[in-house]
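User: Could you check the structure of this?
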Amino acid sequence: MSAPFRSENFLDPQGALVDEPSYLRGWSGRPTLMAAAHRHDDLEINFVAGGGPMLYLYGGELIEVAVGGLAVFWAAIPHQLVASQATRVHWLHVPFDQFLAWGLPQPLLARVLSGVPVISPAARADASDPAKFTQWAADLAASDDELHRIAMLEIQARVRRLALATVGDPAHRHAGDDPALRQAVSMARYIAHHFREPITVADVAAAANVHPTYAMTRFRKVVRTTIGDYVKLYRLAEARRLLVSTDLPASQVAAAAGFGSVSRFYRVFTDACGTTPARFRHGRGL
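Assistant: Sure, the predicted structure tokens are below.
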């Protein structure tokens, strides 16, 4: 059994929130704690192969992935590796359009796009996963389209098997006692649950029972972005979800995602995504 996470295991970030490019890739190694939350339009798949567990701040919760555990989540939602005892991890990033083209069962697709990770506990580990992840990374790195197709079919099958094995399972949330992280998680959880509503810094601060000024300082110290920018990232993720999973007009997408006006929605979305909402939807086949 791994040792419990302690305060000294947690990262004191010194960066800013990162918006990373999306592309198909696989790699492995020892994880490095993330100096800031980041996001990218991929399905992210993590497999912890050795050492101890990893701890993510994701979707307003602390999510733990144990050794032998497999985690699948939509990386458009801001996430940050804040603590780790793992010595070897395998990662896969599958671009959003390729992930959607899999035609996954609607319950699984809805769960992933709503920001609930799919995680298998170590007790359900697949002994073949280490070899599979190594092979997939090699195939994706090769200049061979057929190897890419084979790897993608096998990765899709692994995700589908994971979904079947974890039907009804809740996310594996971590109950830590580090005060700074606990306060930041309380605020991130409030944002994750209320970003569709008009919310203020005072609302977010109240969720952690701290003064608004202290809340802004504490949140930025842990998550390395402002409360306002974090809310905006959630609204953008929700807008992406609605654009690819519904035929709602842009005005209704803007309202449902929490943007105050259609003009603000278009401006923020275009600046962040490099394309308009209509072109983003068209590129995903809707």
